[in-house]
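Entry 14. Structure prediction run on the chain below.
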Amino acid sequence: MALKIGSIEVEPPVVLAPMAGVTNPAFRRLCRDYGPGLYVTEMVSSRALVEGNEKTRGMMRPDPGAPVHSVQLSGVDPRVVGEAVRIAVGEMGADHVDLNMGCPVPKVTRLGGGAALPVHRVLFRDLVRAAVRAAGTVPVTVKMRKGVDDDTLTYLEAGLTAESEGVAAVALHARTAEQLYSGAADWHAIAALKEAVISVPVLGNGDVWEAPDAVRMMAETGCDGVVVGRGCLGRPWLFRDLADAFGGHPVQPPPLLGEVVAVMRRHVRLLVELRGVELLGVRDFRKHVGWYLTGYPAGPERRRRMAQASSLDELDGLLDELDPSAVLPPDVWNLPRGHLHGPRPVTLPERWRETADDPTPPEGADVESSGG
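Output returned:
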């Protein structure tokens, strides 16, 4: 059941969604060690890359041992995006480039970027065209949302445009920007996109909390693969479960707390190695504590202290206090993790909907820093 993105074969058909501050090389390595898939970098700003930002270039370095170097770019100016793609492919060795056209962050949409950009269909077309031409034989994909809100749905037209401009696949997070991360993902929209886009794969994203969810999404929508985001937070072993599920094998029960603790220790040490300073690595890990321990009997006070730890010794001491034999109760196996914000009205530039055919890049909408 392999997914084909250009010449790249992804089996099982699973893609890690870029998540700011989370899907860095440390987390990608953890996930990749559990199972195969396509592991994409955090979002990289096209403008920051073109302007030579060192942090951005560092985020684009290939992961040692990764079979495919996959990067995600954001941008609003076709010229800048095209140049960024050339750098990504020609200098950074990217094997696959994904374009982020679905960011719902208010500071981005109010300026016409992210999920607001597909409303301007000519500009959207020009951006995709520039990226595909600059990439040459390297496959380009597009990740988007359903639209701004239920009154301004863009995903079908945008998907068809991307297909006609030569992308290798399109991915849909089946929520609007207004929803943010609230409510249920609309898998019917994924099915509709799959029915409309016939020559390239369609990937579905939204509400894959456990491996059977991914299998069910593909069965119900006909999509060609799944993009996994919040479901893997604190659960890098989800990629092992996905490989088992797609391979027709039984999915293992959630790990005992002792196994979770072992992964937590490894994760924080990978972050320390990545950041080069123990304090910075431990601070980066703090956000992961709650995700790893979701549903396990760890105690609120101990969780709080872990989320404030400043050294490996301090964190290890607190982890030592946990019961390694504790199990995750079945009724909390698929608890949501990560962002739960929304719904929230989307602010757009003045007359943004009325000027949908304006190809002019919006001023100030470029994300200036990579990662989010």
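The chain is about 40% helix and 15% strand.
Filed with the rest of this week's runs.
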